[in-house]
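Recall from the previous lesson that a structure prediction takes nothing but the amino acid sequence as input. Here we apply that procedure to TRAP transporter large permease subunit from Rhodanobacter aciditrophus. The sequence below is the only information supplied.
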Amino acid sequence: MSNSQSLHADDVVNIADDNPIEHSQPQEQFDYTPIDHVSHFTGIGVSLLYLVAAGATLWEVVARYVFNAPTQWAFEVVMVLCAATWMLSAGYITLKKRHIGITVIHNIASPKNQWRLDLFAMIVGITALFLLLADASLRAYLAVEHIERTGSAFNSPMPMIMKSLLLIGGLLYLSQLTVNLVRHVQSNWAKTLVKLVGLFMALYFINGLLAFVSGPESIFASVSGYFSAIGSSLDPSQALNMRSYSLGVISLIMVMMLVSLMMTGMPLGIVTLIVSVIMAIAFFGPRGLYLVSANTAALLDHYTLIAIPFFVLMASILEKSGIAEDLFDAMSVFAGNLRGGVAVQTVVVAVILAAMSGVMGGEIVMLGLVALPQMLRLGYDRKMTIGLICAAGALATLIPPSIIMIVYGLSAEVAIGDLFMAGAVPGLMLAVFYAVYVLVRVHINPSMAPTAKEVAEKTGTEKKLSRARLSAVFLSIMLIGCVMGSIYGGIASVTEAAAVGALGAMVVSAVRHEFKWSMLKAALVGSMATVGTIIWLVLGSVSFVGIFNLIGGADFMRSLFMNLGIPAIGVILVMMLILVVLGTFMEWIAIVLITVPVFAPVVMSLAPELGLTEDQAKIWFGILFVLNIQIYFLSPPFGPACFWLKSVAPKDISLQEIFLSVLPFIGLQIVGLILVMSFPQIALWLPEALGS
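The prediction returns the following tokens.
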């Protein structure tokens, strides 16, 4: 049965499962409330906007290169379409419990304590969202009143639409989270209390809208003024006098709040958002909420972010069309009589899959489903096989188009194309390390891997590919080459290349006879859920970083690094150690968005001492950063790659066995990190060569 035929209606976001450690059960549709129905159907409906956005981007490329008539509208239209998908999917993601959280402590807690942690997370989430929207609603109304426009040649009302989308998406998130809380509490009085709170919030926002529509002399405006007076009377900034504390103390308070809340298992976007809200109010009073809402609204028009959904959509279409399985079978045909050839071809397939997706979780799951059973069946050594699949799957963090690099580039203000080029050689270097390691081991101990002839004798079968499957394999490789080549050659931007790649993936699926509505729906909804979780985390983290920088935290951290009294390379090593520590309990995207805005300026200031330009230093450090994150993905006790593989591995493979199996490959990753740190040109020569 083909992949698309075997899809289940509730399994349409498996590529998006950023937290496979916690498999929460989705709410059954017959139990849906009206708000659940709105969240569900809105989420699925807006996922189609990614197709429209990709089509508009493709038209811009065609108009520019074929007709020599670039559009004036494509950029702003695509931004609005993607922002609408990000914001309006919030209810669906909350309904399906797809938000990313650090659940290690949550998972080992007793059921009663898990219930309490979930209760606390929902209450904090509702509080954070209500306070954010209290100000965001005012900004949205003012934007509508003045019909804020971009001032570009197209002069669309994009700022007005973005602020309105933030308000609508936040209200969907808040409403769905309140419904989830009603389900979560058990007693009737608690359910009634939550419903009353929900009613109050609904009346608050309805009154605010009516006050805007009816004018300052209306009774609704008087009620809004009453609420504002209550907020002003509760201003804690005067009593706390946070400005009297040193920057070191304030930074410590913020970090402790951040880590403490993260450990409860609540969504990371809510953690960073509530810390931002608390510190904004503590420093500036209720007016400080403007800083939080302004930071979140400004993020929505970052054009770089649009590449993420397009790359995820391309990966999802290729994965659900069965291309990954075809790649593995094609490699087995060409493996020859090399001992360990199936293991080497697994590395090759992993590299190609990484170039297709940039999403590590989906790649490891695919390799675990396709390569792991076959290698075990053929008699490959268990530990070598398990470790190889985890390590090879993690190459998606380094080989372009890497989603981590896109987020890093956004945070460090580095050209995404330069990062992609810089990551290609180190990624291929690690792939060669893995292949050579396997070949050396099987040469020393031939019993660890059979030859192709021994495999054929053992199985009595021969791998064959139909013409359609073989054509799809070659087309998918050509698609990757065209996408990456257009970026490296400066023909198209990263976002444009990603959009063309997503539409090209549909052509490949059609060649394989898998372009069906069930497949496309699964890919679109999976992409919507994946990117929706990332965007809300980014929104919260950007708010946190904005407040942290505003109160001087970033300057304090930079001065702390600069005053260590050690050489520049020593400062880099300290940063790497910090990343290792953070990697034991934080998600990668939280690490990126919290540390990079602090680390990147320090690295730039150290560039002359390192013998690099500022731009070179940021790119080089970005590759070191991603290499470090890749090590974290495999490292016990919380390596996500190990949990991803465990989620699809045979039951007799324990988590402890997976952790032991990845240790040699972690050693190879550390060697790669040391080499790139010692010889920066490993990462820098390709972008410099192509740039010249």
